[in-house]
């Protein structure tokens, strides 16, 4: 059986959910796009009114007004504070899928092709990143930027996001602990993370095996489908979810840890839905954010770490804070390092602007949201964040200001400080 995880639902159930909004506006002050524009159509209430108009056929699917839905970051800060518990994130995904299904004008075919290419992984994308790595080694992007070529080719924004690439490691199927085995976990690699942030994945493997876990890399795992889902390509997200479910089921591992909170939320949702629809037990496997896993397993103690007399500002990704509600885990873990000084990144209650592809499609707004966080920073050596998109966005902003603050995953910081 092939259970659809994100079908476009019957419109009556969507309208019923939309009716739960009593238009109180209590969510507006928590919405980053309303905060920077002050425009009602850029608020959750305004967007829900637009969705209402669309589903009730009072608005056409190609009305320019719907651009306000496109501007939504999907951060779900509104959902977290709504007294009527309106399921805003779900309504947004459903509405975007409906728009893509009803009007060709709404489809961004180029973006879909790019997402599919990255999501598929495999030899093409590996070759692409290998070539990028080579161009970086030859300093070609620096030369092209100096000559103004990147701006002419409209590649300057994308190039600004690329960290210094490392060749991707060839992952083993299993990593064994040196000492007694205390459990088995699967590691979800992520499509973007394994190409641009293998450092975090390698650090996770070293930390987990040091703690006694046998780390499995389930074969044939895919992209989590978050980019597709939030851009309204539900069918593509479903295909990816099915492949991941198959891969995790085959591995026989019950706990799958993910190092990117955005992937964790999408995977956890889609795997639960498939388990329910296909009649698998709820605990067939569990998807866990690695911070939460490490904290609840309670195997880390201060004496494992060398002191680090530095200031770390912790960024709360929306997926960790608003959806998983596990934002305290990185604070608790990093506090275990002796002498470290921990603070919150300013404006943690608002999205940093990365928001999937938003940082590429709406660069000015994305930069504005990011600025309020990083320009207020002083005397900070590291920003810790647990989501790859946020990490790339924050690091690009710091690089463009020639600010030497490092952006690292909490697991990478912990692993660096491990006493051997
Ligand atoms: S989404 Fe919730 S908080 Fe926002 S206007 Fe509607 S009912 Fe009020
Ligand atoms: S998801 Fe975020 S950006 Fe979108 S309406 Fe809600 S608070 Fe605003």
Automatic annotation (TrEMBL):
Q: What are the boundaries of the signal sequence?
A: none
**Listed GO MF terms:** 4 iron, 4 sulfur cluster binding; glycolate dehydrogenase activity; metal ion binding
Q: Which PROSITE patterns match?
A: 4FE4S_FER_1, 4FE4S_FER_2
InterPro entries for this protein: 4Fe4S_Fe-S-bd, 4Fe4S_Fe_S_CS, Cys_rich_dom, Glc_ox_4Fe-4S, Helical_ferredxn
The 4Fe-4S ferredoxin-type domain extends over: 12-41, 62-86
Pfam families, per the entry: CCG, Fer4_8
Q: What keywords tag this UniProt record?
A: 4Fe-4S, Iron, Iron-sulfur, Metal-binding, Oxidoreductase, Repeat
The EC number on file is 1.1.99.14
Q: PANTHER family, per this entry?
A: GLYCOLATE OXIDASE IRON-SULFUR SUBUNIT
| Name listed for the protein in its UniProt record | Glycolate dehydrogenase, iron-sulfur subunit GlcF
């Amino acid at each position: 059986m092939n259970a659809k995880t994100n079908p476009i639902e019957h419109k009556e159930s969507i309208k019923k959910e939309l009716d739960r909004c009593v238009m109180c506006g209590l969510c507006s002050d928590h919405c980053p796009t309303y905060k920077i524009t002050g425009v009602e159509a850029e608020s959750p209430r305004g967007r829900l009114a637009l969705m209402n108009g669309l589903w009730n056929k009072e608005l056409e699917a190609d009305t320019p007004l719907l651009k306000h839905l496109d501007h939504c970051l999907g951060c779900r800060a509104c959902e977290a504070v709504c007294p009527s518990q309106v399921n805003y994130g779900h309504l947004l995904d459903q509405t975007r899928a409906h728009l893509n299904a009803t009007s060709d004008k709404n489809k961004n075919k180029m973006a879909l092709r790019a997402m599919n290419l990255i999501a598929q992984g495999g030899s093409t994308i590996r070759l692409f990143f290998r070539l990028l790595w080579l161009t970086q080694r030859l300093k070609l992007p620096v030369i092209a930027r100096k000559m103004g070529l990147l701006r002419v080719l409209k590649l300057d924004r994308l190039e600004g996001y690329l960290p210094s690439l490392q060749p991707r490691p060839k992952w083993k199927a299993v990593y064994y602990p040196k000492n007694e085995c205390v459990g088995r976990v699967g590691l979800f690699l992520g499509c973007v993370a394994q190409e641009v942030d293998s450092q975090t994945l390698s650090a996770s493997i070293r930390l987990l095996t040091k703690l006694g876990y046998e780390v499995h890399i389930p074969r044939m795992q895919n992209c989590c489908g978050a980019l597709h889902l939030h851009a309204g390509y539900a069918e593509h997200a479903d295909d990816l979810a099915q492949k991941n479910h198959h891969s995790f089921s085959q591995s026989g591992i019950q706990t799958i840890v993910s190092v990117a909170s955005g992937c964790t939320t999408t995977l956890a949702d889609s795997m639960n839905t498939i388990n329910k629809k296909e009649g698998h037990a709820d605990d067939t496997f569990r998807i866990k954010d690695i911070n939460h896993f490490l904290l609840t397993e309670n195997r880390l103690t201060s004496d494992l770490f060398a002191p680090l007399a530095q200031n770390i500002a912790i960024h709360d990704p929306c997926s960790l804070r608003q959806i998983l509600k596990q934002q305290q885990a990185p604070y608790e873990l990093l506090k275990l390092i002796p002498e470290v000084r921990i603070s919150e990144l300013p404006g943690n209650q608002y999205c940093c602007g990365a928001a999937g592809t938003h940082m590429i499609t709406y660069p000015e707004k994305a930069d504005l949201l990011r600025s309020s966080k990083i320009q207020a920073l002083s005397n900070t050596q590291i920003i810790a964040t647990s989501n790859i998109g946020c990490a790339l966005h924050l690091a690009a902003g710091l690089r463009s200001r020639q600010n030497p603050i490092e952006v690292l995953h909490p697991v990478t910081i912990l692993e660096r400080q491990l006493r051997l």
